[in-house]
Specification:
Glyco_trans_1, alpha/beta, single chain, globular, six-stranded parallel β-sheet, 2 domains, transferase, 392 residues, Glycosyltransferase, Rossmann fold, 39% helix
Length: 392
């Protein structure tokens, strides 16, 4: 039997983490021995790990990548702490919204000499979440595979460091064709390594979990309910959603917008909600291990992202036969067929507001989108066969 390693950061609530759980749930454990390496044994999804994978012990050095600089120094890991400070200084030279990507690169690159290797040998090692330094540099494996979950054409990274890193992998898996194309627009020399494998969908589980009870105040809210499930981050565009809600409120629409999720921009978004007097119209529900009852009771699911690889929550809303509105981010065409099983609106607050207004007024189109979702078979277990072919 082949021995497989799969690594990621942790299992906090998020789309990538949900897709990892689906991958683990659909693995053929009669043919493969699977070790799971999580840098931090934390997050609500820990309890969803199947029984078959062997969860490797934490290593304190890798746990630092989910710690603050202050916490790292307090824990006594001075060299890693200094590496983190140096990375922050380097990244501060780039004044853009996503300088955090560069900082993460520099942090890993500077910390490498102080990180332990994994003293086991594998047939295949899979790095499920960027940056992929652990599998690239600290794991012994005949075949190495890295996953792409985001749109790299809009992510600001140090391309020289990225090329050096990606080149250490035998295969690179993108979660959609558009995600693949976006990646290759930035790294064309890696063309022969990249293939597509969509996130594994689990329709029966999603439908079952959607039947669980949730807050009566949410269910009984008789306004037209918008629901978004996303991290509170720049990429997900929640700030733009707040401004769109302001436009809709000023027009007098009886609409409420619920957001399930958490993230680093939470305080900024709360301030934006307060500044625009939207406390009753734009409601942050926080972290929920089961977002599906909220999607089930939505009148419209909205994904206001600036960019995506392929949003798992959109597919899950479609599984629940919800009308879906997404912004026209570069990979949107891989997510929905416009006016068939979803509606694509322009990016930005005004575009989002206009799209919501259009769907609110057009009950016939919403019904058409629901019907479009019901005609699609979202069970895609055949995607696992693509993975097995790579590791043979």
């Amino acid at each position: 039997m082949k021995k497989i390693l799969i690594s990621s950061f942790d299992l906090e609530v998020g789309g990538v983490e949900r897709s990892l759980i689906s991958l683990l749930a659909n693995f053929d454990y009669e043919k493969y021995i699977v070790d799971l390496k999580l840098f931090s044994h934390s997050g609500e999804f820990m309890e969803l790990i199947p029984a078959e994978p062997n969860l490797l012990v934490e290593q304190r050095e890798y746990k630092t990548f989910r710690m603050s600089i202050k916490q790292i120094f307090q824990s006594g890991m001075l060299r890693i702490g200094i590496s983190r400070v140096w990375a922050k200084i380097l990244a501060s030279r780039f004044k853009n919204e996503e300088a955090g990507y560069r900082q993460m690169q520099y942090m890993w690159n500077a910390s490498l000499p102080f990180l332990p290797k994994l003293n086991q040998h594998y047939d295949v090692a899979v790095s499920y979440l960027w940056p992929h330094y652990f599998v690239a540099e600290k794991v012994f494996a005949k075949t190495k595979i890295a996953w792409i979950h985001t749109d790299y054409s809009v992510v600001q990274t140090d391309e020289n460091l990225d090329y050096a890193l990606w080149s250490k992998f035998d295969h690179i898996i993108a979660v959609s064709e558009h995600c693949k194309d976006a990646f290759l627009s930035k790294y064309p020399l890696l063309k022969n390594k990249v293939s597509v494998m969509e996130n594994i969908a689990t329709p029966e589980l999603v439908i079952s979990l959607a039947d669980e009870k949730t807050e009566s105040s949410f269910v009984e809210d008789n306004r037209f309910k918008l629901v978004t499930v996303a991290r509170l981050s720049y990429a997900k565009g929640i700030d733009q959603a707040v401004l769109a809600m302001k436009i809709l409120k000023e027009k007098g629409y009886p609409i409420v917008w619920y957001v399930v999720g958490y993230g680093g921009d939470e305080e900024e978004i709360k301030c934006l909600i307060k500044q625009n007097n939207l406390e009753k119209e734009f409601i942050l529900l926080g972290k929920k291990i089961n977002p599906y009852p909220y999607i089930k009771h939505a009148d419209l699911y909205v994904q206001p992202s600036r960019y995506e690889g392929k949003a798992l929550t959109v597919s899950e809303a479609q599984i629940l036969s919800k009308p879906v509105l997404i912004t026209n981010y570069p990979t949107a065409g891989s997510q929905v067929k416009n006016r068939v099983d979803g509606y694509i609106c322009p990016l930005g607050a005004e575009g989002i507001a206009n799209g919501i207004e259009y769907l609110y007024e057009s009950e016939d189109l919403r019904a058409k989108l629901v019907l479009g979702c019901k005609k699609i078979n979202y069970l895609n277990n055949e995607e696992m066969q693509k993975f097995y072919q790579l590791i043979q």
